[in-house]
């Protein structure tokens, strides 16, 4: 009999959380021991004997939830957005005091999205210009998306390593932020539209040519294999892993 993971889902009544509850309940190597909403106490996680939490809550509370888990020796798989540099640095500090605990922060659990980000970062040193467009359902509370921020970061890293300069841009007058947010020097545009789930395009331009790398999540089912992989792997990776690509062989 293989290991059966005791899992607590936080944000269990939400769009992602409710899918995760179904996915964990369907996985033979997992046992859903707690499903928490916003009015439940985190003490339930400890009382349930959970070995791993899956955090799919809201940007304002995810840091508190993850800190609680780490302080109680519980691993964490985190899909919630809002992990800025300061929060990530604080978490790294905390994990040094709990070296046996693993935390995965996954800006996106969908394999296609992870590959799109990877391909875009690889391609970006060959093109003078690069911009990101993320498109989501209108109930999303944060912009730009965590995936777009992560993608911009990876692109910026790859271009810096290759010695590629900033994308050319003659704009001197931008009425109302028409050129979007600038994340690590990469312009990021956010669309919110009824009917959408989660979509991203990376536009790469050079003299006389354009490459567009696009990923679409049409259903939240697309995220579930990644969530389950995270639960199965996180304990084997103590410390912080930022991006599910850390658990995949993309070489
Ligand atoms: N990494 C990935 O692949 C993906 C990540 N996401 C991210 O996941 C997060 C959740 O998205 P989504 O499901 O659409 O959002 P929802 O608003 O549908 O769900 C959030 C849930 O969290 C609950 N919640 C709020 N505070 C707490 C708390 N303190 N403890 C427990 N539960 C709490 C809310 O409950 P209540 O209604 O009672 O307030 C709600 O049910 C977002 O940050 C989103 O960007 C989304 C899709 C994919
Ligand atoms: O809120 C969402 O829906 C999503 N959030 C994540 C993000 O901000 O990148 C992941 C995915 O894009 C869906």
UniProtKB/TrEMBL annotation:
Catalytic activity: (S)-2,3,4,5-tetrahydrodipicolinate + NADP(+) + H2O = (2S,4S)-4-hydroxy-2,3,4,5-tetrahydrodipicolinate + NADPH + H(+); (S)-2,3,4,5-tetrahydrodipicolinate + NAD(+) + H2O = (2S,4S)-4-hydroxy-2,3,4,5-tetrahydrodipicolinate + NADH + H(+)
Role description: Catalyzes the conversion of 4-hydroxy-tetrahydrodipicolinate (HTPA) to tetrahydrodipicolinate.
Active-site residues (renumbered): 136, 140
Localization (cell): Cytoplasm
EC number(s) per entry: 1.17.1.8
Upper taxonomic lineage: Bacteria, Bacillati, Actinomycetota, Actinomycetes, Micrococcales
Family: Belongs to the DapB family.
Oligomeric form and interacting partners: Homotetramer.
Subcellular location, principal: cytoplasm
Membrane-traversing stretches: none
Keyword field contains Cytoplasm: yes
PANTHER family with a match to the protein in the record: 4-HYDROXY-TETRAHYDRODIPICOLINATE REDUCTASE 1, CHLOROPLASTIC-RELATED, DIHYDRODIPICOLINATE REDUCTASE
The protein's annotated pathway: Amino-acid biosynthesis; L-lysine biosynthesis via DAP pathway; (S)-tetrahydrodipicolinate from L-aspartate: step 4/4
GO biological process: diaminopimelate biosynthetic process; lysine biosynthetic process via diaminopimelate
Matches recorded under InterPro entries: DapB_C, DapB_N, DapB_N_CS, DHDPR_bac, NAD(P)-bd_dom_sf
Residues at which (S)-2,3,4,5-tetrahydrodipicolinate binds: 137, 146-147
Gene3D superfamilies the record matches: Dihydrodipicolinate Reductase, domain 2, NAD(P)-binding Rossmann-like Domain
UniProt organism field: Rothia terrae
Swiss-Prot/TrEMBL keywords: Amino-acid biosynthesis, Cytoplasm, Diaminopimelate biosynthesis, Lysine biosynthesis, NAD, NADP, Oxidoreductase
GO (cellular component) term, any one: cytosol
Enzyme kind, highest EC tier: oxidoreductase
Keyword Cytoplasm: yes
Name of the protein described by the UniProt record: 4-hydroxy-tetrahydrodipicolinate reductase
Domain Dihydrodipicolinate reductase N-terminal positions: 6-109
